[in-house]
Each structure stands twice: as structure tokens, then as C-alpha cells.
Amino acid sequence: MQKEEYRAKLLEELVNLSKQLNKIPTKKDMMTSTNEFTKKIHSYYDEFGTLENAKKLAGLIPGSPTEKATKPFCRDCFVFINNNKTLCDKCLNLARERENRKRNKNIQSGLCAACGLVAPMKDKKLCSGCFDKAAKRAQLLKQSRLDNKLCVRCGLTTTNVNCWHNTNCARCHLKYKFKFNTSYNNAAKIINTLLENQNYKCVLSGRSLKDNKYHIDHIIPRSVRPDLFSSVDNWQLIIETANVFKSSLSMQEIVNLAIDISNNFNNTKI
Known about the structure:
The chain is mainly alpha-helical. It has three domains: 3-70; 89-147, no CATH class; 170-255. Helices cover 47% and strands 4% of the residues. The protein has helices at 3-21, 27-31, 41-48, 51-59, 89-108, 128-147, 170-178, 184-197, 240-246, 251-267, and strands at 214-218, 235-239. It has a two-stranded antiparallel sheet. Helix 7 (170-178) crosses helix 8. The longest helix is centred in the middle third of the chain and has 20 residues, at 89-108. It is elongated, with a radius of gyration of 27 Å. The N and C termini lie far apart (84 Å). Mean pLDDT is 77; it is low at 37-46, 48-52 and 57-71.
């Protein structure tokens, strides 16, 4: 059977089954079906698991909610998921458990944790081939996320902050840089509030934060009050060059230094 004929036959059977169930068939529904085509779970995902085809298929089912047509399928159980991942949370946890068991078994056997075929490199858990592949995948993933304005750590969008010049989203930046754990939306809300309170201007230079990369700075330096390191009330936004110049000085100290620099510059012939 030609690929086009197979796709047409598979789609026809899937639509018929979907109409009977009035929903997208789950893995269990398809496994209990008597039709040979609908039993081919992986073929179903390969042919109709993409977002665009999911829209087309969902649109053919009577009574399907409109929002379902914009959601992709879980690769394993075929339930709708509302994120850009290929697995739902339940299947993702199961896949991680399977992978961890496999890796631990390979490590205990003195083999590469990934392929389990050869011994790993010295002081590593992977062989040279798997290590190079993992590094290449990580680099491609990072570049892909950068191109799509996604957080390089978690893969979520960084555009939920009004103006953001960081490769990490607000949540990951606060979590790993300031040890401040909060939700994705609340982290963006904190940064947006700081931006609005400062009228999108640097508190030191007065330059626009929209046009310049900025940092979160401590009003009272960490060296003076380490207990206020993760306190939102002790945060302010200043441009990158001003933050380098300020270093661990207090606001008054940096102002006094700036005055001395200005006076010395005016009194010195260059």
C-alpha cells in the first residue's frame, strides 16, 4: 500500500472511531479497537501527531470544543496537552523513571549510561560518542531556544516581561541568580512591577531600560546585608554598565564617587 493510500485509510479509520467516541481516541481506545489500522499507535502519532494535523483531525469530530483544535497530543497516551511538549506530565514522569532505571543499570554494569554498549570515559558516565552527541544536542537546543526567544533553561517564552534582555526567563533568572523560588507568572509580575515603578528608566543613569541591557541590583549591598539578598524590596533595575561601575557600593557612595569623578574631570585638562 502506498504511503498516500495508507495515510488516507488511517485517517478514515481514525475519524470513524473518533465520531463513535465523540473524542480523540486514547491509547486504550485504539488498542481495544478491532481495526488493524487503529491499533498502530506509533503510526498514528507519526502521521497525525503534529499540531497542524491535530487541528484538522479535531475539526472533523462533531461536538469537539474549539480550544481542543489548538492543542497537540501526548505522544504516548494521546490526550490533549496545553504546552509545547510531546508528553503529558504523567507520561513524562513515567518516561523519566524508565530512563533513570536504564541509566542506573548501565552504570552498575560499568557501561556507558546512555548506550550501555561500551565503557564510559574516565571520570564520566558517558562514552566519547554519547558525550559528543549529548553536547551537540544541547548546543542545538540552546540555539533553537535563543532563535525563538525561549528560556535556554526551561524552554518557556521570555516575552512575558515587557522588556527583557536575558537568555533566561524571569523565573529561572530569579531562581538560579538570586535563589528566589516563585512561579513563572509571578516572576514576570515582579520584574514588570519594578519596570513600571521606575518608569522603565535606570535609577542611576536615567537611561532607558528598553534600549539597554539591565541587571537586578541590590539597593543595600549584599556585603552589608546578606539577609536581604533575596528580598524584592531591596531590588532595583540599573543598566549593565552602571551595575559594573556600582559594584558593591551603596547608592550614596556611588553618588559621591560620581560627583568626585565629575569635578576631577572638569578640573583636569585632557
